[in-house]
Design brief:
Elements (H helix, E strand, L loop, with lengths): L1 H35 L5 H8 L6 H8 L10 H9 L4 H12 L1 H11 L3 H12 L8 E2 H11 L3 H16 L9 E2 L14 H5 L15 H15 L8 E6 L13 H6 L2 E3 L15 E3 L7 E4 L3 H5 L5 H15 L2
Helix pairs in contact: 1-2, 3-8, 5-7, 5-14, 6-11, 7-11, 7-14, 8-9
């Protein structure tokens, strides 16, 4: 009996997979018709999707996304993220010096600090080295068909096909994360026409290979998000007493000190360039706090995470101290 049940389940799973794939082939045709209403020829869409197969690993990742746990230790996590002997910060300094003439041009054009451009580049893809190896079209088609966030991913697939159709990227180069983020600044496809910038004026927005376009696209995004040149993302501080009160109101440096807050090195909070700031907690054990600067919210338009902000504070501070 047990063997019969296992055989039945195996056959059911196989039939379900075959039906799922067959229906996916039908979906391609219906999707191509809909995409044609948005300026993407059906023949082009069908050609691009012809050999695309459903990627179960993408579905699995979408349904089992890891959320940061407060039981994870901040210092251990950050040590791994910075890599051995603070390699990520050393590399940031090297890339900053190596690309300084271009960075100065981009900074002047967009009014966005060159240090944060390098920082975001390093945070997102380790300076262009880790962009993801998923085929973006396959991932997005899979996610549209699976349907959990169909409207969002349909928009992204439409945008991705337009990028291919207009020649901004070649299919073999169109790689990214399982969710479709792509290029050296990890834009979702719909963000590329909205924020991407053809800084070298070759008629293409190339965030995969052109540093001119990569740096300008990062700066253009931040500019449109409200970034103010010369102002801070914020500063990292600690509280050895384990503060558990509210951080949602503005406080002066003196008020933070009275609550037990200190600089990371244990010194008093100086507040040299600010009078009052709100605070933010990083959701990891033993993590510091962030006293939010004027560019904190613009940065979070990129990624709404206090840990993401901490990454960029660490790198930009190091670059600005040079």
């Amino acid at each position: 009996m047990k063997k019969l049940i296992l055989t039945f389940l195996t056959l059911y799973s196989l039939c379900h997979s075959i039906t799922f794939a067959a229906t996916f082939e039908q979906w391609k045709k219906s999707y191509a018709k809909e995409a044609s209403k948005r300026g993407i020829p059906s023949s082009f869409t069908l050609k691009v999707l012809k050999d695309v197969k459903l990627d179960q690993t993408v579905i699995d990742k979408d349904r089992n996304q890891v959320i940061l746990s407060e039981t994870k230790d901040y210092n251990e996590f950050m040590k791994r993220w910075l890599r051995d002997d603070n390699e990520r910060i050393k590399r940031a300094k090297l890339e900053y010096e190596r690309n300084l003439p271009l960075l100065e041009k981009v900074e002047k054009r967009f009014g966005v600090d060159k240090e944060v451009i390098i920082s975001l580049w390093g945070v997102e893809t380790y300076f262009g080295e880790i962009m993801g190896d998923y085929d973006v079209i396959t991932s997005l088609a899979t996610l549209v068909y699976d349907g959990r966030r169909r409207r969002f991913y349909t928009t992204q697939l439409n945008a991705a096909l337009r990028l291919l159709y207009k020649g901004h990227v070649k299919r073999e180069s169109f790689k990214g994360s399982w969710a479709g983020a792509t290029g050296q600044c990890q834009f979702m496809p719909s963000n590329i026409p909205a924020y991407g910038y053809d800084f070298n004026k070759d008629g293409k927005i190339d965030i995969w290979n052109s540093k001119e376009d990569i740096f300008a696209s990062i700066a253009n995004f931040l500019k449109k998000a409200g970034w103010k040149k010369g102002l801070s993302i914020g500063q990292l501080v600690v509280n050895e007493q384990g503060y558990d009160g509210k951080l949602s109101r503005y406080r002066s440096p003196k008020e933070y000190q009275s609550l037990g807050f200190k600089e990371l090195d244990g010194s008093k909070i100086t507040g040299e360039n600010w009078r009052a700031r709100k605070g933010s907690k990083i959701p990891l054990k033993n993590s510091p706090y962030i006293l939010m600067g004027s560019n904190y919210k613009p940065l979070l338009n990129w990624n709404n995470s206090s840990l993401f902000a901490a990454f960029n504070i660490l790198i930009t501070d190091e670059l600005q101290q040079n």
